[in-house]
Amino acid sequence: MKDSLNQNFISIYNKEAQNNYFSPGRVNLIGEHIDYNGGLVMPCAITFGTYLLTAPNNDGVLRFRSVNFEESLEIPLQPSYQKDGEGWYNYPLGVFEHFLKDGHQIQGLDMLFYGDIPIGSGLSSSASIEVVTAFALNDLLKAGYSKLELVKIAKAVENHFIGVNCGIMDQFAVAFGEKDKALMLNCDTLDYQAVDSNLGTHLLAIINTNKPRKLAESKYNERVEECAAALAALQQKLDISNLCDIDAATYAGHEYLITDPIVKNRAKHVIEENDRVKLAAIALAGNDLAEFGRLMYGSHDSLRDLYEVSGKELDAIVEYSKTNTNVAGARMTGAGFGGCAIALVEETAFEDFSRELIKYYTDKIGYAPSVYSSLIGPGVGILS
């Protein structure tokens, strides 16, 4: 891959790239809609991601080119930058703006990006671009930022330069990912534990529903508001700051405080899902994929029935997975309303799984999903 990209770089810029970087995408193995409730999530880095090749120039410009998109940007060096339309290059441009704001001197740079993450699939292509750019600039400028500081820079770019109100999980996962390890991350404190996640004879199947992804911002905001209402009701008797400060047993003894049945369902999902993450870490560390799979199915059922963020497309993938004996577990991953599901599939049965799932899904939904295989890979770094 690096050699072919370097040939692309030469054909565009008439010189060889001097530096090569890679940042992965991510999936969340379990722990959904927890990040804004102060709880635990368990993402991992995948083997798809964003490649960045760079070389300095003496022309006093920043050049952003991509193998994936025709649109490009060439912009002179200046004291600050603003978002320029809706192009992909705004993600790395925002990182440059943040470094400038922190007082760093930027030199002319030619850049070529390539991503093999399916666009719009919910696998964090934007976080991958932000983190690989921040990591590269930190390296090139010898800026001295820690990895956590780079994560916070990437999140700030997404929130303030791009204008998307995301949490920190995506940037954290693609930066701190480790091969064959999931990250059990506390979204409130940013403390994390790398959990051994040797999948043995299984691999991670990533299934893109290919549903046009219009994550209704209003639906997401509704869930946030419903969780806030649940928290306020529980705070009448409990001294807590987040829903995830209590476990399912404590919630069961206090759910009478919540009078709205829908709000009650939302809280029940969040608190039980947080408990599932703790159990999932134990199962993975103990190589108990059967138990981990059971927890995955339980997570999906809860997201479908209590949190109501699934849909017929995601449900069809999980329904089929439950009928296939080569699948240890499956669930929707990400915010829902489309996007992707994941499944733990026996490696030797992956081709059969993929073919049969595509037929089942197409018969039921009317168009085909895309099915990919991945292992749990490392986080951002320099390509050797």
Automatic annotation (TrEMBL):
Q: Where does Mg(2+) bind?
A: 126, 158
Looking up InterPro entries in the UniProt record yields: Galactokinase (IPR000705), Galactokinase_bac (IPR022963), Galactokinase_CS (IPR019741), GalKase_N (IPR019539), GHMP_kinase_C_dom (IPR013750), GHMP_kinase_C_sf (IPR036554), GHMP_kinase_N_dom (IPR006204), GHMP_knse_ATP-bd_CS (IPR006203)
Provide the protein name: Galactokinase
The entry's ATP-binding residues are 66, 120-126
Tagged with keyword Metal-binding:
yes
Domain (GHMP kinase N-terminal): give its ranges. 90-177
Q: Which Pfam families match?
A: GalKase_gal_bdg (PF10509), GHMP_kinases_C (PF08544), GHMP_kinases_N (PF00288)
In this protein, which residues make up the domain named Galactokinase N-terminal? 8-55
Gene name as annotated: galK
Q: Which UniProt keywords apply?
A: ATP-binding, Carbohydrate metabolism, Cytoplasm, Galactose metabolism, Kinase, Magnesium, Metal-binding, Nucleotide-binding, Transferase
Output the superkingdom of the source species.
Bacteria
Q: In which pathway does it act?
A: Carbohydrate metabolism; galactose metabolism
Q: Where in the cell is it found?
A: Cytoplasm
The active site of this protein is located at 170 (proton acceptor)
**Annotated positions for site Transition state stabilizer:** 26
Q: What EC number(s) has UniProt assigned to this enzyme? A: 2.7.1.6
Native species: Mucilaginibacter gynuensis
